[in-house]
Design a protein that fits this description.
six-stranded parallel sheet, 12% strand, 10 helices
């Protein structure tokens, strides 16, 4: 590794994060798949037999009480503007009694000077907070040490490892080696002292994958199904016109959120291996 390589890696990471933010704001990057949630409606109960004043939406997740079962999913980090975004989200989360995750901390692992863009504990001391790294980084030199650092550096309660194979395939700097990853995730689950959650980034998780994740001991699964932001579309725009056209062919790719929820519930229902 040359003396300039770490600095160039840091610059590339920051350019990518700024591109992600700009494209999300300036382009329509929704996918062509519906969440499927519009197919479900609540059946009106004319005689509910409950007192509205007594309705309690609170729940406990990973040992912390939430005012409602809502989590602000990981978004951004690693650039100056991200610090303000994360702190604003954290302040809102603290005020409302919810939970949140920070964006991928790969930037700060590669460049510790960027840790400040992820730190929110001073404005949100009581929230359920998730650290976040790409699971595929476990095939590119990361291990339990880096995962522990991501958690400890921001005082997180748990770690999210995100799965994004389609995004990485379109990303110009993408990491596309997903081989043998399950066993490495298992090692992190076994050795990290906080819960490990697996999430997708907009294409959903199938029953088969959920079953495998349950068997290796993940503490939770965030389906992040299709129907929202398309990260393959974002990366296609970043990569240029030809890649953008190819990415558009995947607009209908992914498992609708409603279907993925059912698949994951079924796949994770079995007993874990002892």
């Amino acid at each position: 590794m040359s003396d300039n390589e770490p600095a160039e890696t840091a610059r590339t990471n920051q350019r990518r994060k700024q591109d992600h933010l700009n494209i999300s704001l300036d382009y329509n990057v929704g996918g062509g798949v519906s969440t499927g949630l519009e197919e479900y409606t609540f059946l009106h109960q004319a005689l509910p037999e409950i007192d509205m004043a007594g309705i309690d939406l609170s729940t406990t997740l990973f040992g912390k009480k939430l005012a409602a079962p809502l989590v602000i999913s990981p978004m951004v980090g690693g650039i100056d503007v991200a610090a303000g975004i994360n702190r604003s989200l954290a302040e809102a989360t603290q005020s409302l009694g919810l939970a949140m995750g920070v964006g991928s901390q790969r930037c700060m692992i590669d460049d510790p000077s960027l840790e400040y863009t992820f730190r929110v504990r001073d404005v949100a001391p009581g929230i359920l907070l998730f650290a976040n790294l790409g699971a595929v980084q476990l095939n590119y030199g990361y291990g339990v040490r880096e995962c522990r650092r991501a958690v400890e550096s921001i005082g997180a309660d748990a770690l999210v490892l995100h799965l994004n194979p389609l995004q990485e395939a379109f990303q110009p700097e993408g990491n596309t080696d997903y081989s043998g990853l399950l066993r490495k995730i298992e090692k992190v689950c076994r050795e990290l002292p906080v819960p490990v959650i697996i999430k997708e980034v907009g294409s959903g998780i199938s029953e088969k994958v959920a079953r495998k994740l349950n068997e290796i001991g993940v503490a939770g699964i965030d389906v992040a199904g299709a129907g929202g932001t398309s990260w393959s579309r974002i990366e296609g725009i970043r990569a240029g016109e030809r890649a953008a056209k190819l990415a558009a062919d995947f607009n209908a790719w992914g498992i609708p959120t409603a279907d993925s929820i059912q698949m994951v519930r079924k796949g994770a229902a079995g007993d874990r291996k002892s």
